[in-house]
Design goal:
Layout: H1 4-16, H2 20-33, H3 36-56, H4 61-71, H5 74-89, H6 97-106, H7 118-126, H8 130-146, H9 170-189, H10 193-221, E1 228-233, H11 239-252, E2 256-260, E3 265-270, H12 272-303, H13 310-343, H14 345-366, E4 370-375, H15 380-390, E5 405-410
Antiparallel strand pairs: 1-3, 2-3, 4-5
Helix pairs in contact: 1-2, 1-8, 3-5, 3-8, 4-5, 5-8, 7-8, 9-10, 9-12, 10-12, 10-13, 10-14, 11-12, 11-13, 12-13, 12-15, 13-14, 13-15
Region (Disordered): 381-412
Domain DUF7168: 242-354
Domain DUF2786: 175-214
């Protein structure tokens, strides 16, 4: 009679395959062939071990929760969060503060009294029978065993490191970020595109000024900070347009972006203050772009009822991303020019150039096989509407359907 580990291995292998009947048979063998507490504890241990291996291979808590929700659904994602809590409980080495912060954001905690009771207790919380609970646990383990290594952006638990530089250091930085958040919140809530653009532009000016201040402080203090990275969700629908928006926002803030389409995220590399700016701007601009797209779609339907909207929506979002990118880069260049007049170009420009070069070196180290994905605009009306939504003040109704655009992506 196979032991519990072997039965779990067989069930996971079948779940990763394409034979649905075999997967059900192996799951039945797991249910019938083992005692429940033994199987539950062993399965949880297998999950914790696998999540620990993924942590060493670049996967952060938010990444694992996001990929579980993307591939399996909300309920298995909640199980994955519980596994992350168990993994944290079992850590004996150093655990970085950012790891615990992500777990807190996910609400990860060990709520069950003993590991042998975890799965039946989880099934009770979710209103599931035992075999369904086992199936979902096996599916999470099968998913985890199929995940590839990704870029290690920050040292995982168990690795002793110096404290990472805090984002947005100091009271002045905190006040600046609060002003940026307030401006972006107003931009999201207004129904006037020109006002939203002006507010977003002002936010970018503040961000660019703060970035220059941080660069000069780092240069004066001879700090040995290194560029870091964050991952931003670029899930369907319109994943390519979202990746393009991340790339445009990143470029305007001296960052580099790489889209992992198959995994549903874009990795942004840069300095801490710039990364925080990209996160804030991307989140806000995605809200603004979606709202503008829906308004444009509604107006379009009154004139062209029955036409398909996917090509329109995608072209709209691509045009929005490109035009917003132009405006953000213009705001950054203007801020840099004024900062150079104050600090002196001989002092500022070499610092900015050195920081940009460090980010590019980080990109080459983490993503040596990067390629480019071509995004083609297929709907002229959507392109023109998206451009107009991003820049009402310079509406050009005769603008053509736009060139193809490339987004840096990862080849597998």
């Amino acid at each position: 009679m196979p032991d519990t580990e072997e039965l779990i291995t067989d069930a996971v292998a079948a779940a990763r395959g394409t034979d649905v009947r075999l997967a059900e048979r192996q799951l039945d063998r797991l249910v019938v062939g083992t005692g429940a507490p033994d199987a539950d504890a062993v399965l949880l241990r297998r999950l914790v071990r696998r999540f620990g291996l993924l942590a060493a291979r670049g996967w952060q808590p938010v990444d694992l929760a996001r990929i579980a929700a993307r591939r399996l659904g909300a309920r298995p994602a909640r199980l994955a969060v519980d596994v992350l809590a168990a993994h944290r409980r079992d850590q004996t080495g150093p655990v970085p503060g950012w790891w615990d912060a992500q777990l807190a954001e996910l609400g990860a905690r060990v709520w069950w009294p003993e590991d042998g009771r975890y799965l039946p207790d989880w099934a009770g919380r979710e209103g599931l029978d035992r075999i369904t609970a086992l199936r979902e646990a096996v599916d999470v383990l099968a998913m985890a065993e199929g995940l590839p290594p990704i870029a290690v952006l920050r040292p995982p638990p168990g690795v002793a490191t110096a404290p990472a530089p805090a984002r947005g250091r100091g009271d002045a930085a905190s006040r600046m970020l609060e002003r940026v958040r307030a401006l972006l919140a107003k931009a999201e809530s207004t129904t006037f595109p020109a006002e939203a653009e002006a507010l977003t532009g002002k936010a970018q000016e503040l961000i660019a000024r703060h970035s220059v201040d941080q660069a000069l402080l780092a240069a004066d203090g001879n700090r040995d900070d290194l560029p870091g990275g964050v991952r931003l969700s670029t899930d369907p629908p319109y994943a390519g347009a979202k990746a393009l928006l991340v790339q445009e926002v990143a470029a305007a803030n001296r960052c580099e972006a790489v889209w992992s389409d198959d995994l549903g995220f874009t990795t942004v590399l840069g300095w801490p203050a710039d990364l925080e700016a990209v996160e804030l701007l991307y989140t806000s601009l995605l809200v603004q772009a979606t709202a503008a797209m829906l308004r444009g779609r509604g107006e379009r339907r009154t004139h062209t009822a029955g036409r398909r909207t996917r090509g329109y929506d995608e072209s709209f979002l691509n045009a929005f991303a490109l035009r917003i990118g132009e405006r953000l880069r213009a705001a950054t260049e203007d801020s840099d020019r004024r900062a150079a007049e104050t600090a002196g170009p001989d002092r500022l420009l070499p610092v900015l150039a050195a920081r940009s070069e460090a980010v590019r070196e980080r990109l080459d180290t983490l993503f040596p096989g990067v390629t480019r994905h071509r995004l083609t605009v297929r709907d002229a009306e959507g392109w023109n509407s998206g451009t107009s939504a991003a820049d009402r003040a310079s509406l050009d109704p005769g603008r053509p359907a736009g060139p193809t655009r490339q987004v840096r992506g990862r080849r597998r």
